[in-house]
Design brief:
Blueprint lengths: L5 E6 L10 H6 L4 E5 L8 H11 L5 E6 L1 H12 L4 E7 L8 H29 L8 H14 L1 H12 L15 E6 L7 H10 L4 E5 L6 H4 L1 H12 L2
Helix pairs in contact: 2-3, 4-5, 4-6
């Protein structure tokens, strides 16, 4: 008798949608019923967490979160820990926004008001490992997701990210099996921050992917899918 599929909810990052997890959806299809939440309607992390919970595929589910989605995932673990069977955090961290980051976000928000496509053109080189920054198909996919998300949603997401709390004091309360995935060449969220995140969660496992920037599910899709497949079987 085949094993039942695990309900698996993906939380995308800033200017991302389900396409960020295309390889994972296909690779995990035999083990999990995958769904990506739409995180575009609220301008607070709390509101995005409520939106995600309303889109969850089951009362109890497994949760994969990338970047901004990780901030939402940590809020879900505060609000409804009993609903999360296991947790995977990709290229994210538990710190609040720094003053420098907030200033840069506000600059990009101002740019978006006059030239939204220029936002992704500026962000893309910073999000990818040097080798992947030259991959036209990868950059194009990221731009397509950004345009599909749209300016207004981008502004709401940035407001939410700026206003997030420091989650480090809450990590010790997480009790579900947790995988933390870092990109060795992630210039946005360095390995040290992911190591801090993993050490704060009891029993969490940290995996560092080589030749990988911030967009791990797209830059190293096979490796991320393999790690998630192992994590689902824990």
């Amino acid at each position: 008798m085949p094993m039942p599929h695990k309900p698996l909810l993906f939380l995308p990052g800033l200017l991302e949608d389900a396409d960020a997890f295309e390889h994972q959806f296909l690779g995990l299809a035999e083990a999990a019923a995958c769904r990506a939440a739409e995180l575009t309607r609220s301008e607070t992390i709390a509101g995005l967490a409520e939106d995600a919970l309303a889109q969850a595929p089951a009362e109890r589910f497994c949760l994969v979160a990338h970047s901004m989605g990780g901030y939402v995932a940590l809020e879900i673990l505060r609000r409804a820990p009993q609903r999360v069977e296991r947790l995977a955090l990709l290229n994210t961290h538990a710190r609040p926004d720094s003053r420098e980051s907030t200033e840069n976000r506000r600059r990009l928000m101002a740019l978006a008001e006059t030239d939204f496509p220029a936002v992704m053109a500026e962000l893309a080189p910073k999000l990818l490992a040097p080798r992947h920054a030259e991959e036209v198909g990868l950059v194009g996919k990221m731009s397509e997701m950004a345009l599909a998300t749209g300016k207004e949603a981008f502004l709401r997401q940035q407001h939410a990210i700026i206003g997030r709390i420091d989650s480090r004091a809450h990590l010790g309360a997480i009790r579900c099996p947790t995988l933390v995935v870092a990109g060795r060449d992630d210039a946005i969220m360095p390995v040290a921050w992911l190591d801090e995140l993993a050490h704060g969660i009891p029993g969490a496992r940290l995996e560092v992917i080589e030749d990988c920037g911030h967009m791990s599910s797209l830059e190293q899709p096979e490796k991320v899918t393999a790690l998630l497949g192992e994590w689902l079987q824990q």
